[in-house]
Design goal:
Strand order of the largest sheet: 7-6-5-4-3-2-1-8
Structural class: alpha/beta
Distance between the termini: 10 Å
Number of strands: 8
Order of helices and strands: HEHEHEHEHEHEHEHEH
Strand content: 15-25%
Bound molecules: pyridoxal-5'-phosphate
Largest sheet: 8 strands, parallel
Number of helices: 9
Helix content: 25-40%
Length: 244
Amino acid sequence: MNTFLSQLHVLQDRIKQAEQRFGRPNGSVTLMAVSKTRTIQDILLAHRAGLHHFGENYLQEALPKLAATKNLDLTWHFIGTPQSNKARLLAEQFAWVHSVNRLSIAESLNALRPTSLPPLNICIQLNVSLEPSKSGITPSALPELVHQIAKLPRLKLRGLMCLPAPSDSFDQQRIGFAKCREAFQHLKPNFPWLDTLSMGSSHDFEAAIAEGATIIRIGTTLFGKRPPLNRSIASPPLQEGPTA
Ligand SMILES: *Cc1c(COP(=O)(O)O)cnc(C)c1O
């Protein structure tokens, strides 16, 4: 079996086991393949293996990949920090933006989402670490932002996203994800259509599943170690041949 397929099968097995272990319904966790730094060939290989959800965090790197897969049934998720001057392309090209962190960017995406497309799926990025940071909004600011975004007709607010600081401890990993889950549960009575917790990547997705993740964002465990930061599509394709 080739390298990619064997890694995918091991990963799918771990997801299934985590669903069982933490009382989650079978198939309730969607795997998003994070394809940053990977080639178009890598993406096509993953698609042939049955994956449909792909995530990118740099717009310029993503655009050629989106163009090359335009006629396939891929769902593209933007998971980087959205910049106002990129809002038009984000609104036109992606199905989801996971990392909305302020009202102004939500308003731009709403204004720029083409009417020919369904509303843009949105998650609000929540800062679940203790230090203030730009990587998401604080839990105290969340209800007001949700209230405002829910009024924007060209956006479909789906839920919350978080990216906690990495930790080697499973219990520690769960703490950040639990904060996100609690914030979600507080919103749910007023916004019953919310259905998404986008949380967990290669090193902590099992803890995220334990806390209710519905979308996990996986790069390394699926595609192997990322090539050094030469943001690109110039990286060699994944090995398709047999492994030793
Ligand atoms: C790169 C990235 C991931 C995937 O990280 P891996 O450790 O490679 O699985 C997940 N989420 C975001 C926001 C990322 O930028």
